């Protein structure tokens, strides 16, 4: 991002490892200026896709790595929640149609498949 006439200014406040900096609109020839050394802290996305396990690694370390992948974790939780809601709606449908309307099991299943199929098209 380019911001004309804005510079990083060292505030002089000491942190654990270095000095606090701020974005300032000043003359760059005046003041105390910081020099930065950047380090790569996260693995590249390509490296995350090609994870290989050795025979010595246990199941717990593999599970820990899998649960650390937020995309996988939230996808699995979303699919689980969707299945839970679907089975709950199916249970309520089955009981309502059989007990309130007095239809048989075959008619109940046919009506459920038809209603979910039509609502899925809409």
Kindly summarize this structure in a few lines.
With 122 residues, the protein is an alpha+beta fold.
Topology of this structure?
Blueprint: E1 7-15, E2 18-24, H1 45-49, H2 59-67, H3 70-99, H4 105-121
Antiparallel strand pairs: 1-2
Helix pairs in contact: 3-4
Put simply, the count of helices is 4
Helix content: 40-55%
Write the element-wise H/E pattern from the N-terminal end onward: EEHHHH
Mean pLDDT, nearest integer?
76
Please give the order of strands in the largest beta sheet: 1-2
Radius of gyration (Å): 29 Å
How is this structure best described in words?
The structure is a single chain. With 122 residues, the chain is of the alpha+beta class. 50% of the residues lie in helices and 13% in strands. The chain has 4 helices and 2 strands. It has a two-stranded antiparallel ribbon with strand order 1-2. The longest helix is centred in the C-terminal third of the chain and has 30 residues.
Keywords:
122 residues, alpha+beta, two-stranded antiparallel ribbon, 4 helices, elongated
């Amino acid at each position: 991002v380019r911001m004309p006439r804005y510079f990083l200014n060292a505030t002089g406040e000491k942190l654990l490892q270095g000095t606090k900096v701020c974005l300032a609109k000043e003359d760059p020839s005046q003041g105390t200026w910081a020099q930065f050394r950047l380090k790569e802290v996260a693995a590249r996305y390509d490296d995350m896709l090609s994870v290989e396990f050795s025979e010595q690694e246990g199941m717990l370390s593999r599970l820990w790595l899998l649960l650390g992948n937020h995309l996988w974790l939230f996808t699995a939780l979303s699919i689980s929640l969707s299945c839970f809601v679907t089975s709950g709606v199916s249970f309520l449908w089955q009981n309502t149609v059989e007990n309130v309307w007095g239809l048989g099991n075959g008619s109940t299943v046919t009506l459920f498949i038809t209603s979910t199929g039509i609502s899925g098209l809409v």
